[in-house]
Amino acid sequence: MKGLLLVFWFCSIQASAQDISGYWEGILRITQHDSLTIGMMIEQQGDSLSVVMDSPDQYYMDIATTARDWHDSVLNWKVADIGASFKGKLSADGQHITGTFQQGGKLPLTFERGHERRVIRRPQTPQPPYPYTEEDIRIREKGGRYSLINGTLTLPAGTPRALIILLSGSGWQDRDETIFGHKPFHVIADHLTRQGYAVFRYDDYPHAVFAKSTTFDFADGVTMIIDSFAHRKEMDTLPIGLLGHSEGSLIAEIVAARDPRVSFVITLGGVAQKCTDVLLYQLRAISTADSTLTPDEIDNSVELSARLYQALLKAKNEKQAADILNHTWEQISDQLTPEERERYGFTPQRKAAVIQQLVSPWFFTFLHLDPKPYIKKMRCPVLAIGGEKDLQVDAVANNALFSKYLKKNPKHQFTVIPNANHLLQTCTTGSPNEYGQIEETIKPDVLDIIFRWLEYRF
């Protein structure tokens, strides 16, 4: 879901004779079968240039990054966070900017004028002015070298009823958990703060740190947040709750199992199954909804992935995992026809990339995780909400395990929302392909359920 080419930059440049103001659009040909539309809105005012770039196919607009310069008809920018850059030259007729996009490899990219910029509608995204205050919070890593956690605290006008910390799902996420132009954590924070709760939402770790981190490292970060707020006089006596979405629920479970300061947990699309089971459910459910594979081919695809996961589970460390996976991959490949290798993705071209992903610190740790022992140690009330059509986490199966593993408490609540997907939007199929097409960010019913449960809790 990451690796987006979405740019905002504003910088002083040397004056140029050409005026490149306006909307530009180009097609990035990633593979023979995959492409990505990139839009670029440019405003030129004297010696200043502002450029806003979009990835409309992914429903991401106006996302900030960095840039270099515009000089001698050459536009040059860099997206530091994702290691991407573009350098292109304006054509003689002023209608094209042709150059090279680089991110890992190099790809040709030509922007041209004259396209209509797409408008992405997200009506639930809160707009200022707000009836509450916002405060930027920075928490430095233990050595004090840099800010590890950067977020926004929203505070109601009166004394807060509780502090709620929002924990995002897998993959690098910003504080709003922005996905396909939706900002679900901004919507949730706004709703709860209006109801009298202090809410803290934060960006994931800086990219270089995030790439080396695991679910347990993220849990340590939550503990740092709790410690930080414990030193604030006006908040040191507030009940503290964790609201986690997807993998964020697993992080909440780990923290709540070991920290008695956690007074309640809310999970959205929460995980109680073994993580291997979650990944195989995702593969089968999404393939069934979207894939051109036949039912038998889907069964085979799931079985082949399960063989890789089981091989990975035998490894004690990442080096051993790479050796085991390499051997297992070759075994599977030898058993498939050339057509089947192409069909199931067991090609030589994909091998290195897949194994690198599987042995990464995060994936290696995640695959070995079983939430059960952490859930059994939790002693606080839990609200678990899942979507009936969630194709990433089976809501019925996971809610049943929450109910089974948790110590009995009349304040627990386990709810499955009809016609809702993993983002808890009103949906048709539940496929991730619908996430960006749906204007609704989160069903209002879900926000009401959270509020009513908190009212009961307090």
Q: Which helices and strands occur, and which strands form pairs?
A:
Elements: E1 8-12, E2 22-29, E3 35-45, E4 48-54, E5 69-71, E6 74-79, E7 84-90, E8 96-103, E9 105-113, E10 133-140, E11 147-155, E12 163-167, H1 184-194, E13 198-202, H2 207-210, H3 215-230, E14 240-245, H4 247-258, E15 262-268, H5 275-290, H6 295-313, H7 318-335, H8 338-344, H9 348-358, H10 361-367, H11 372-377, E16 382-387, H12 395-405, E17 413-417, H13 444-457
Helix pairs in contact: 3-4, 5-6, 6-7, 7-9
Explain the overall architecture.
It is a single chain. This protein is an alpha/beta fold and 458 residues long. The chain folds into 3 domains: 8-113, Quinohemoprotein amine dehydrogenase alpha subunit, domain 2 (Lipocalin); 133-274 and 369-457, Alpha/Beta hydrolase fold, catalytic domain (Rossmann fold, 3-Layer(aba) Sandwich), CATH 3.40.50; 275-367. It has helices spanning 184-194, 207-210, 215-230, 247-258, 275-290, 295-313, 318-335, 338-344, 348-358, 361-367, 372-377, 395-405, 444-457; strands at residues 8-12, 22-29, 35-45, 48-54, 69-71, 74-79, 84-90, 96-103, 105-113, 133-140, 147-155, 163-167, 198-202, 240-245, 262-268, 382-387, 413-417. The chain is globular, with a radius of gyration of 24 Å. The model is unreliable at 1-16 (pLDDT under 50).
